[in-house]
Amino acid sequence: MDNFFKEIDFAKYSSLRIGPKSEVLVINEIGEYDEYQILGLANNVLVSPTPPKFAVLGAAFDYIHQEEDRLYVGCATKSGKLLSYAKKHDLANLEFLGKLPGSLGGLVKMNAGLKEWEIFNYIHSIKTNKGYINKEEIGYSYRHTDINTIVYEVVFNIEKGYSKTQAELFKRMRDNQPQLPSAGSCFKNPQGDAAGRLIEAVGLKGVCQGDMSFSQEHANFLVNLGSGTYEDALSLIQRAQEKVKEEFSVDLETEVIIY
After folding, report:
1. In this predicted structure, what is the pLDDT of residue 105?
2. Run of H or E residues at 104
3. Residue 146: Cβ within 10 Å count
4. 173 lies in a domain?
5. Are residues 18 and 111 in the same domain?
6. Which pLDDT does position 259 carry in this prediction?
7. What is the pLDDT of residue 184?
8. Residues 118 and 135 occupy one common structural domain
9. Residues 203 and 222 in one domain
10. What is the DSSP string of 10-51?
11. Given a cut of 80, is residue 116 above it in pLDDT?
12. Which residues are catalytic?
């Protein structure tokens, strides 16, 4: 498969429903793409009116292949597809992917998960244009990795035993989250605390700027009430950081990626 360009309307494509129309490179061949910012399904991004050059992985990297105790997954594969595979083939440890939107590349890059369940807990290695890199050689922590290149494939250690109980637990945990357009958690939880608690404590829960708001249901979700803009979103993010710093001397670090 060859690479090609396609137009993406980020006001429809991104989960925040914000952003311009932009020509994006669709990558179907492993190579050097240093001038491009790689993007997944735009579930945790805030795209400005003047974005960088974006690229996404194409259909060539949408696959799941099982070999003995390893699972090889292309990074264009959606989380829901992998979860369905795990359920069908009775594989353990991937239940946390339920209602965790995104493609595998994005989830790996930000070490996505739910509370202590993180994707890196179950990874064996990743594949970049330099070949396979074992997990032990990669720096990673809560919602962060040191990966600064395109990940084309992720290899999981697998074991048998899909847990319906765990799947139901994760579903219940996520059912409490707002259903309006959002980028998921806006800020990373500071050590020993919760970003939502801090935002609520400084009086910003439910506060609006234009059509953007910190959700009434969960203060750490920045939601779009209809026609929110990049400027409105950025203004609320900065306001929360300033107020929390002022009142609690805590630096809130964004989990949403701003382009």
Report:
1. 92
2. helix 104-109
3. 9
4. no
5. no
6. 94
7. 84
8. yes
9. yes
10. HHHHSTT----EEEEEEE-S----TTSEEESS-SSEE--SS-
11. no
12. 143, 185, 255
Query: Rounded CA gap, 114 and 129, in Å?
Result: 29
Confirm if 184 and 221 have CB atoms less than 8 A apart: yes
The CATH number that applies at residue 200 is 3.90.78.10
Note the pLDDT of residue 98.
80
Domain count, the chain: 3
- Backbone phi, psi, residue 209, to 5°: -135, 110
For residue 194, what are the domain limits? 178-258
130 found inside a domain: yes
pLDDT of amino acid 108: 92
- Rounded to two decimals, the pTM is 0.89
- Whole-number Cα distances in Å, 53 to 7, 49, 208: 12, 12, 31
Q: Strand ranges (DSSP E) for 84-198?
A: 113-114, 117-118, 123-128, 131-134, 140-141, 144-145, 153-157, 182-185
pLDDT digits (tens, 9 = 90+) for 132-182: 999 999 998 887 889 989 999 999 998 999 888 877 877 776 666 777 889
pLDDT of residue 141: 85
Q: Among residues 239, 121, 248, 140, which one has the least CA distance to residue 186?
A: 239
The DSSP secondary structure of 49-97, one letter per residue, reads: SS---EEEE-GGG--EEEETTEEEEETTSBHHHHHHHHHHTTBSS-GGG
- 198-209 per-residue burial string, b: 16 or more CB within 10 A, e: under 16: bbbebebbebeb
